[in-house]
Design brief:
alpha/beta, 14 helices, 13 strands, about 40% helix, globular
């Protein structure tokens, strides 16, 4: 079975408005099954989780199904899946807990490639603890963040290394398993921002070597919130602030207040939606169906990216800053003598959404020499098709003409 993008697109009500969306790195559109799952969860009895009344059982089931779905998606254990309002919030939360044991002379390593959500929480936590922050630099000419950039930064006082799984600005995908090996050899913990990566790649947190892995379901068709995955036995060693009456069980000790059950239901549906995009047999487990789906998604997005890159190479005055050998289908463009924000507004008038900015990857944008303004970001998603690409290229040609 081949990937049928027209069938995929038909499941997204928002696409009926006619906009060609290249804003997936900032958040994808929502398919009908996810919307239906949200509504269905609220249409049945709901109450505080329990095992007696229908509303209690329903809530308990929604939570369990959510944890299992995310465990299947990430190659993690259900008991290590934590719900959060956002990945930023979860990273701040875990940074505060971990830094309780840091002190003067301890060291934290962050990457210049990252979204600020995987930089500032660690920098600020290190500052409060008196720890030293060290920076891993990427090559602005190639967009590569080599594993060797971490070698000289790690030592016996390194407590944590934070690195993106894929740059939300230029798409670069560092070699996480190789970096993780260096990190663990130094006796440190490895925190991976997988927000952009999870939308495009079949994730296996164990293979990647991530001790902590965060992602955001709204980047892969789900509702707006964050998820953190970690080994349950690691979470057992951490003591976050919490209310006295609230459970001390893992992972619930990290989740403050009553969970939004309808959001969990929609997230589970988003994972199932992805699993259905592959060609694996229906009888196969969800994890294997997800593997097949990501292979199909990757082939589809790669074909579109190849077409787009070839056409951009023929347009004068365009600089493509996404150059790493391994990267997501995400391009950052700047234009000779023209502002990227003007290109964004010009495209918008013809119903093409390719946003401009630095997208919270402030350090990366500055390191590329683009200051705080960044560029025009073109991010491909599974529902993009050749017509979207043609509309984008036609708009850019007119803008540059």
């Amino acid at each position: 079975m081949t990937y049928d993008v027209s069938t995929v697109r038909a499941q997204f009500p928002a696409l009926r408005a006619g906009t060609a969306h290249f804003d997936g790195p900032g958040g994808t559109q929502t398919p009908a099954p996810v919307i239906a799952a949200f509504t269905e969860a609220l249409s049945r009895p709901l109450s505080i989780r329990g095992t007696t009344l229908p509303g209690e059982v329903h809530a308990e089931t929604l939570v369990g199904d959510f944890r299992q779905a995310l465990a299947d998606l990430l190659g993690a254990q259900p008991g290590g899946i934590i719900f959060g309002r956002s990945s930023t919030q979860l990273t701040y939360d875990i940074s505060r807990v971990l830094s309780q044991s840091w002190g003067p002379g301890d060291e934290v390593v962050v990457s210049r490639l990252d979204h600020d959500a995987n930089i500032r929480p660690w920098v600020q936590a290190a500052g409060r603890a008196g720890a030293v922050v060290r920076w891993a630099e990427f090559d602005p000419a190639t967009g590569e963040l080599p594993t060797e950039a971490f070698g000289a930064l790690l030592g016996e006082r390194t407590r944590l290394v934070a690195v993106t799984g894929a740059s939300n600005l230029i798409g670069t995908r560092p070699d996480l398993p190789a970096i993780a090996e260096l990190v663990h050899r130094a006796g440190a913990l490895f925190h991976v921002d997988g927000v952009h990566l999870t939308a495009h790649d079949f994730v296996d947190v164990e293979r990647l070597g991530a001790d902590f892995f965060v992602c955001s379901p709204y980047k892969f068709f789900g509702p707006h919130h964050g998820v953190l995955a970690a080994r349950p036995e690691l979470l057992e060693t951490l003591r976050p602030d919490k209310l006295v009456p609230s459970t001390d069980a893992v992972p619930e000790r990290f989740e403050l207040g009553t969970l939004p059950y309808e959001v969990l239901a929609a997230t589970r549906a988003a994972v199932d939606f992805i699993a259905d995009l592959g060609s694996g047999p229906a009888a196969a487990g969800r994890r294997e169906r997800l593997r097949s789906a990501y292979a199909a998604i990757g082939a589809h997005e790669s074909a579109l990216l190849e077409t787009l890159e070839k056409a951009l190479a023929g347009l004068g005055g365009v600089t493509v800053h996404s150059r790493a050998a391994e990267r997501t289908p995400t391009l950052l463009l700047t234009f000779e003598g023209r502002d990227a924000s003007d290109a964004y507004r010009f495209l918008a008038r013809s119903g093409v959404h390719a946003p401009a900015g630095s997208f919270y990857a402030l350090e990366a944008s500055r390191h590329l020499g683009l200051g705080d303004d960044g560029g025009l970001r073109v991010g491909l998603s599974p529902y993009n098709d050749t017509d979207d690409i043609e509309r984008l290229l036609r708009g850019l040609t007119e803008f540059l003409g």
